[in-house]
């Protein structure tokens, strides 16, 4: 006995149910019959018997061209994959005592990332005694959010996690 993968569709002789509900090529209901009779009907039309709803009671089978069905299925999946946008997260690292010019360069980079549709994770890492001045880091992040507000919105407000303070920005639509 062979095992059948859950994603695998049962075709022709693999359909071994006692009774099946049969649907014609046109989508018209033929009725409930034995799987052998359904197979004979499919063979007489030179088509395949495909189980499309195995969990139904009785299972639903359709008379169709299996090769054409699989081709169209693959085509639909490819089209769906083409239409989806992968959003990646880009990171911009700052320090609590960042100079103005460095800050402006980081803002320009973040704006470029937001324009291309990526999320931006802004991180400030506190070293040594800087942990006593986390409020400075929060002010820098708020200033950063203000600088890029035309291109992105704050998804996650500045939050201290260990020695890092994080903020996440979403691109504006």
UniProtKB/TrEMBL annotation:
What does the record note on quaternary structure? Monomer.
What are the GO cellular component annotations?
cytosol; membrane
Record Gene3D superfamilies: Translation initiation factor 3 (IF-3), C-terminal domain, Translation initiation factor 3 (IF-3), N-terminal domain
**Lineage start:** Bacteria, Bacillati, Bacillota, Clostridia, Eubacteriales
All copies of the Translation initiation factor 3 C-terminal domain together span 87-172
Gene Ontology BP terms: ribosome disassembly
Organism, per UniProt?
Acetivibrio saccincola
Q: Molecular function terms in GO for this entry? A: ribosome binding; translation initiation factor activity
What positions does the domain Translation initiation factor 3 N-terminal occupy?
11-80
Q: Can you say what this protein is called?
A: Translation initiation factor IF-3
Q: Which domain of life is it from?
A: Bacteria
Q: What's the stated role of this polypeptide? A: IF-3 binds to the 30S ribosomal subunit and shifts the equilibrium between 70S ribosomes and their 50S and 30S subunits in favor of the free subunits, thus enhancing the availability of 30S subunits on which protein synthesis initiation begins.
Subcellular location per the Swiss-Prot or TrEMBL entry: Cytoplasm
Query: What keyword terms does UniProt attach to this protein?
Result: Cytoplasm, Initiation factor, Protein biosynthesis
Annotated family: Belongs to the IF-3 family.
């Amino acid at each position: 006995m062979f095992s059948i993968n859950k994603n695998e569709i049962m075709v022709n002789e693999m359909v071994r149910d006692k009774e099946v509900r049969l649907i014609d090529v046109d989508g018209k209901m033929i009725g409930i019959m034995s799987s052998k009779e359904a197979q004979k009907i499919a063979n007489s039309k030179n088509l395949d018997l495909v189980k499309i709803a195995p969990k139904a009671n009785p299972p639903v089978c359709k008379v169709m061209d299996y090769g054409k069905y699989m081709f169209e299925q693959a085509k639909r999946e490819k089209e769906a994959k083409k239409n989806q946008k992968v959003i990646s997260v880009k990171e911009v690292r700052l320090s609590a005592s960042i100079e103005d010019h460095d800050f402006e360069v980081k803002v320009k980079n973040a704006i470029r990332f937001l324009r291309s549709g990526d999320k931006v994770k802004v991180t400030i890492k506190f070293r040594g005694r800087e942990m006593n001045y986390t409020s400075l880091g929060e002010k820098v992040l708020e200033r950063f959010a203000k600088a890029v507000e035309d291109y992105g919105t704050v998804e996650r407000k500045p939050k201290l996690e260990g020695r890092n303070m994080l903020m996440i920005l979403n691109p504006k639509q």
